């Protein structure tokens, strides 16, 4: 599933290479970090909480790999990384990346529509 | 941590982290540890990291990768000119809010005392 999904969002070979690097880094993590990394990755795939711009996406996953590798090296407990609400963590994390999400386009569209509607209001 | 605390912290954490970095550059774990020592006991590393990523994307910090004895290089964050401006803005907003809310608090307390 992941492979097909990434094909959809990344066009360039460079991005595919970076994606494979991320997968290899996760694979090299000791448990429980590998399991946690896979769970967070899966959540991103299914939740639609991330940007669809391929370049931002590979940057984001590379930063995530940094976080997990650092935690593994320091022996930081998984819970101290993701907190009491891992979904909340994942969403906050994804929001940090500036790529456009479909919801941003819809927000702009709503704002424009209200502007238009306002023009028709009696003065 | 209560819901109210979580929500309020969410709105102020960026300013808090910028304030920590204004003292001296630091890496993610250091920032989390420093804030936990100062009473933000429920703060987790992932939250701080997500925030650091965001302020990096917005250009408020400069990042230097420093080799580490074990594990990947550590990213050391330092506040740049744009970050300092943002922090100034945060203090102005914070002072305004704190003053207004404290005023409401005082008005409420005065009312309560008059009723007694």
Structure description:
The complex is a heterodimer of chains A (123) and B (116). With 123 residues, chain A is mainly alpha-helical. Chain A has 7 helices and no strands. Chain A has helices at 2-9, 13-28, 33-47, 54-74, 78-82, 86-95, 102-119. Chain A is elongated and about 65 Å long. The termini of chain A are far apart. The model of chain A has no long low-confidence stretch (mean pLDDT 83). With 116 residues, chain B is an alpha+beta fold. Helices cover 68% and strands 12% of the residues of chain B. Chain B has 4 helices and 3 strands. Chain B has helices at 3-23, 28-37, 45-57, 81-115, and strands at 26-27, 61-66, 74-79. In chain B, helix 1 crosses helix 4 and helix 2 crosses helix 3. The model of chain B has no long low-confidence stretch (mean pLDDT 89). At the A-B interface, helix 4, helix 5 and helix 6 of A face helix 3 of B.
The number of strands of chain B is 3
Instruction: Find the count of extended strands of chain A (DSSP E, 2+ residues).
Output: 0
Distance between the termini of chain B: 34 Å
- Unreliable stretches of chain B (pLDDT < 50, length at least 5) are none
Strand content of chain B: 5-15%
State the helicity of chain A in percent bands: over 70%
The SSE order of chain B reads HEHHEEH
Tell me, rounded to a whole number, the average pLDDT of chain B.
Answer: 89
Which class of secondary structure composition applies to the elements of chain B? Answer: alpha+beta
Outline the low-pLDDT stretches of chain A: none
Strand content of the residues of chain A, in percent? Answer: under 5%
Instruction: Figure out the total of helices of chain A.
Output: 7
Question: Major β-sheet of chain A, in short?
Answer: none
- Distance linking N and C termini of chain A: 55 Å
Strand order of the largest sheet of chain B: 1-3-2
The coarse overall form of chain B would be: elongated
Q: Using CB atoms under 8 Å apart, which protein chain pair has the greatest interface?
A: A-B, 23 and 20 residues
Tell me, what's the shape of chain A? elongated
Provide the helix percentage of chain B.
55-70%
